[in-house]
Amino acid sequence: MEHQKENEKKITISDVAEALGVSKTTVSRAISGKGRIGAETRERVLTYIKEHNYKPNALAKGLAQLKTYNIGVVLPEDYTLVDLPFFQTCLMGISEVAVSMDYDILLTMGRENENTQLMRMVENHKVDGIILMRTFTKDQSVEYLKKTGIPFVTIGSTNYPEVIQVDNDHKNACRELISILLMKKMQRIGIVGGIESHVVTQSRLQGYIEAYENAGLTVDKSIIHVNADREAMIERAVEKLLGADVDCIVCLDDAVCMQVLNKLRKENIRVPEDMKVASFYDSSVLENHMPSITSLSFNVRELGMTACRTVLDMIEGKKVARRTLLGYEVILKESTK
Questions:
Q1: For the chain, does the N or the C end have fewer beta carbons within 10 angstroms?
Q2: Contact, 26 vs 41, CB < 8 A?
Q3: Is it true that the peptide bond before 85 is cis, omega within 30 degrees of 0?
Q4: What backbone phi and psi angles, to 5 degrees, belong to 191?
């Protein structure tokens, strides 16, 4: 009778994992038949379940609660070679946390107006949650994921209500950098770069505008050149800024900054003697440039780690902050002296 009661007791995945000395992920994969697992290990798990009277109806209930132990990460298809270090470092942070929690990463590509791969990933139940690595002002992926109900986090801010987002504090960082430049008597600060539909571009521009407003100065929109993402467009923007008699050129990222510096060199414009230059984003691209470039520094690895922790908490049903902004550092260097 006692033996019968023991067999009738509901066996959990944790019980099976502990008894066999394997992880809960391994048990889940053995039961579901999905994921990387050896045939011998799968047989051990299934045999144990059968021997301990883990009945089909209980198994079905258990399967309904099973996780895939995969997190989907959507990398933007339109990234440039210079963007790659940012996404690589961010992915390292995501992976570090995921591995520690026995999760794997499924990587897919996404475009601004196309999310077929994301839809396939979600609708085939391949993942428990999603991390979007770029946000847009009108974001098809965000709109789709909100309808599905799957836990998801954006790396980058978004104006969509109730979307969980983790971001660097771009607006305040850019406002602080521009405020410092204004205090250093650079009152005509030109802007180059950034795609207008990217939320990060909007955040950076808002910081720029707020710095001018706080200083009681009027923003001259004719010296703001966004959507300049190709070499020829950047060079034309620099030519216009030189003609507009700006004191400083601030680039929305370091890829643009490198091309601005190259154009200034072609025109025999010395930095910082003839023109001050700064970047809203610092990476290894500018690391060894002479003169050294004033820029903003963010902890990109921590960004990925925080996003991953957040989506894992959501998967577990825990309450999370709607918006998490990470810190920054303003690095003043020779290019704005």
A1: N
A2: yes
A3: no
A4: -120, 135
pTM of full prediction above 0.85: no
d(CA 254, CA 194): 11
- DSSP run (H or E) holding 71: strand 70-76
Please, are residues 127 and 117 in contact by the beta-carbon 8 Å criterion? Answer: no
CATH 3.40.50.2300 domain position(s) in the chain: 70-168+300-328, 170-297+331-336
The CA distance from 12 to 18, in Å, is 10
Class of domain 170-297+331-336: alpha beta
The CATH fold assigned to 2-65 is 434 Repressor (Amino-terminal Domain) (1.10.260)
The per-residue pLDDT for range 4-34, each reduced to its tens digit, is 444 445 667 778 888 888 887 787 777 766 6
- Name residue 115's amino acid: N
